[in-house]
Amino acid sequence: MNSKSFQLNKEDGKKILKGLGLAMGGAGVAYILGILDYIDVDAYTPIFVALASSVLNALQLWIKGQS
Known about the structure:
This protein is mostly helical. It has 2 helices and no strands. Helix 1 packs across helix 2.
C-alpha cells in the first residue's frame, strides 16, 4: 500500500530500516577490513562502503529468492 505525500506508513518504515541495515553492514565490512589491514580503504572508504552495501543487498536477494 502506498503512503500519502508527507506521510510514512509501516511498510515505508520497514524499507527505511532495511536500507539502514544494509548501509551499516557495508560500513561494518569496511571497518573490519580496515582493522585487519586486509584492504587499505582509507582514501576510498565512501566508495567501498557503497559497494559493500550493494554486494550485501545482492547477497540478501540471492538468498531470499523469488517469493
